[in-house]
Amino acid sequence: MPSLIAGVSMSALYFTAGYLLKNNMEYGIHTALATSAVLCGAGISRSLKAGFKPVPASLTVLGAVSSAYYAYKYTQFYMVYLYVHKDDKFAVKKIARRERESKKEYLDRVSKEVHLHRSLPKHHNLVDYVDFFVTRGKPYYVMEYLPGGLSISQKVPNVEYQLCLFKQLAMAVLYLQEQNVSHRDLKLANCRLTSEGVLKLIDFGSSIHGNEGVGVAGSKGMVAPEVLRDIRYDSFKSDVWSLGVVFVELLGHRTRWKEAVWYDKAFELYSRSQSVDDVSDDLANFQHIVLPMLKIDPLRRITMSELVKLPAIVEVDQCRPGNIIHSHLSGP
Fold first, then answer.
1. Which of 7, 28, 53, 252 to pair with 104, CA 20 to 30 A apart?
2. Average pLDDT over residues 148-173
């Protein structure tokens, strides 16, 4: 019985990792790597107790090989170095080549991301571009070092701070659109904090000039329904939808749907009701912010310029430039 339970548990974890990886969601590689490490450890433990019989030996080999594979993938896509020069700190990102990506496609993608970021005038809610260089054929991207991250499981001190974080992100997205840029990968993982608590938007790998979006970009749990229909779409409006999902997550919740597609029953229910109760729990006090961003029809969806003029956003005056350090940052 214990072996059966262990086998079912490992299968469930690998299934979860596969689902996350397939849908380009957060923690896919992390889950797969952790599961493989547990499998390897279990195989070694069984081998020590029962001798190196075929089954535990196979588990050990399988766990070791899969751990090595996912560790390699992790270093490919998550390798960011901290570089310290005198009193300054910088983040150095190694830009990896994707599977089945030709060298030309790889270099074009890197060049596009770096050029777009470098061309943006500085903004207090966007990560600063510093430099770009190539060493031994590997491109490296130097940016401002941002020590703090955000996640849905992280407890935010209070509603004022949640709104303050959201306003900063909204101002970053508005600024990008004023520069005629669509981010197309808005999510908590792409929001970082300075040591003073200033939110900055990072990662322009999916960004484009203009608002004529084609193809799926970003994490499927975050993207707008029109993005998943394989049609041209207004990527300014799809960024607003993603911002709505981020807002729900900043409040410590998740949307009831996994993807904004019609065969997802929770999304289909929301598309019929357009009720905040079908978005997530405990959002009644924020429906005047959430629902305009999560309009199914992009033509009816609020624009960024309209969003930042909502009274609930305007009233968050502690987030204006020059007064960005919050007295409630370390509050209860």
1. 28
2. 84
Q: Where are the domains of the chain?
A: 2-77, 81-144, 148-319
Fold designation for 148-319: Transferase(Phosphotransferase); domain 1 (1.10.510)
pTM of the model: 0.76
CATH 3.30.200.20 corresponds to the domain 81-144: yes
Rounded to a whole number of angstroms, the distance between the first and last alpha carbons of the chain is 45
Q: Which of 87, 88, 185, 281 is catalytic?
A: 185
Confidence of residue 156 (pLDDT cuts 50, 70, 90): low
pLDDT at 13: 65
Q: Which amino acid is at 61?
A: V
Which pLDDT belongs to residue 135? 83
185 assigned to active site: yes
Q: Which has more pLDDT, 266 or 327?
A: 266
Structure tokens at 94: 């190694």
